[in-house]
Protein: Dihydrolipoyl dehydrogenase
Amino acid sequence: MSDKFDLIVIGAGPGGYVAAIRAAQLGLKTACVEKWVDDKGAAVLGGTCLNVGCIPSKALLETTHKFHEAQHGFAAQGIMADNVHMDTKQMVARKDQIVKNLTGGIAGLFKANGVTVLQGTGKLLANKQVEVTAQDGSSSVHAAENVILASGSVPVEIPPAPLTEGLIVDNEGALKIDETPKRLGIIGAGVIGLEMGSIWARCGSEVTVFEAMDDFLALADVDVAKEAKKLLTKQGLDIKLGARCTGTEIIDGKEVKVKYTDASGEQEMVFDKLIVAVGRRPQTQGLLAEDSGVKLDERGFIFVDESCRTDAPGVYAIGDSVRGPMLAHKASEEGIMAVDIIAGHKAAMNYDCIPNIIYTFPELAWVGKTEQELKAEGVKIKVGKFPFAASGRAMAANATDGFVKIIADEETDRILGVHMVGGIASELIAQGVIAMEFCSSVEDLQLMVFAHPTVSEAVHEAALAADNHAIHIANRKKR
Structure:
């Protein structure tokens, strides 16, 4: 048994590493367990998000967006760039370098803050003891006053499409593709599927997306989903709704035949690559000893309360392994909340104000409730909507697709949801988050001064439009 820690965090993803740094800042003797290693056997920090998720995918999205704009958007702006082509291998190498820089940065932050890295697979035993099993099979047991479980999630695999090296891949394998496939199939029209589809469609792939559900982006606001499908289809994504994959077949080790059913019956298509992106599940298998005191639900999620406490005293769980959206920023804030509670501070988290973003172009972003949710709850609402096509700054940026939509309570004027489709919606949505966090009314946004010319003015105008007071679009006729 080694020296006792004040806190041991299992997992060094965006929830775990942030929690470990915060704990060390607050004076807690902290260790962080991580099982990922590089080719030299050293721990790789940052988890799925940094290594094979958020960061590398955004690097590819940024590069391919610039490439697509150079091909299709420069001429209208008077920029002549003939024979623009993509060096796919260089694009992937740049992505890898960004990941390397950031993982190294976390290692530096751990060192600067005095966080101990325990390399290996962590398992919670009884009485807040953590067993760490190294790559060579050796194990050690460490005691702690408190433990945070931040084990993250893994891609869901489906029997009809078993992963096959280089041909049928999950999101991690998709990020290793270094040649543009002529025909790319994607199972799942969620965040990962749409982002991967966008990347390779811009590079010239014929992209087909299979979605088993009849509704596109069912969790998004209906206006966002409708606009997104229209724009993505225009960009070349063939989105097949109500299309359920029933099987796959490898042809000559080079192609993948996908069998699926839709409203027309049984169908087949052949692809050079197939990405399976049907969601993720909590990575809790092997994480807990039977007598750890921590309970799981039938889907493998860890039971926690609103403060991320598990059923075992002194043990917390955060991020993708607990209820709520599987988002890096949600995991990070849960980690900070848990540590602050451990350190004796008052802490809480507002789960009603967590932003969601899909980094297609234009980007999709929202916070709060959708129009269909509020109507189903019987809430009387008013809606303000402003298109970027009426924004001078958006015109200058050659990014006029999309809109800002603000939904408010008709009686109290309180903002209940903000939804966007637009070029920098991922940045603009923070304005909606701040407004809702401070319980703003529509009138609050109406009375604020927004700089001109900016795309942010669309938020101001959408707030004005909720009361038919928009300046730069024609308002609805009053009944």
Notes: The chain has three domains: 5-155+281-349, 168-278, 354-465. The longest helix spans residues 88-113.
